[in-house]
Amino acid sequence: MPRPRSLTQDQLAAAALAVIDREGLPGLSMRAVAVELGISTMALYRYVQDRGELEALVVERVLSAVDSTPPDPAAGPWRARVTLLVDRLRDTVGAHPAVLPLTFGHRHRSPAVLRWGESVLGVLTEAGLGPEERIIALRALLAYVIGAIQQEHLGALSGAGTAAIADLPADAFPYLTEAARGARALTPDHEFHAGLTLLLTGLARG
Q1: Each residue of 96-106: pLDDT tens digit?
Q2: Which of 119, 30, 26, 114 is nearest to 71 (CA)?
Q3: What is the b/e burial string over 174-187, where b = at least 16 CB atoms within 10 angstroms of the residue's CB?
Q4: What span, in angstroms and rounded, lies between the C-alpha atoms of 28 and 20?
Q5: Sign of CA dihedral 26, 103, 109, 15
Q6: What domains sit in the chain, N to C, each tagged with a CATH number?
Q7: pLDDT in tens, 113-131
Q8: The whole model's pTM is what?
């Protein structure tokens, strides 16, 4: 008879997520997760086949925390309700930004993200968008959220990227250097919501 399993998938996911949060995505390995769990690497293979399966468990653990409940109409017009749903996704994924690259390959399997998408499409339907407009809008919103989180957490650590652009020769890059100097005063929340407002305003005009 096979040996009974003593670890749950949630425990495996929690251990792998702890490794990623502490060491970054490059630190994720079967050995590192086994050490986190206090078992041998070979014992870990009783539960998962490979790192890819671990990655899927981590993504589902993170994304399962997304609140996909359709906002009450009392929350405001459709753009306010879409913003609320987008903020929920941003806050959840932004709490573990190193996991973000893994979501590209696994998010379509996440029941929580599917329910989130269903809620967004429901609000967009109420707003009067047609079927084609709705799917384009949903994909644009997902692309914006993912890109914005990457920019905030992974793309410009300590403002190094912005500072480097601001130091470029102004005569060769007048617009980039001016924009970079202005960006120094932006907070991540202001920048995110200003960009989201532009996107939603464009949808309203479509």
Answers
A1: 988 988 887 77
A2: 119
A3: eeebeebeebeeee
A4: 6
A5: positive
A6: 9-63 (1.10.10.60), 73-205 (1.10.357.10)
A7: 899 999 999 999 999 999 9
A8: 0.84
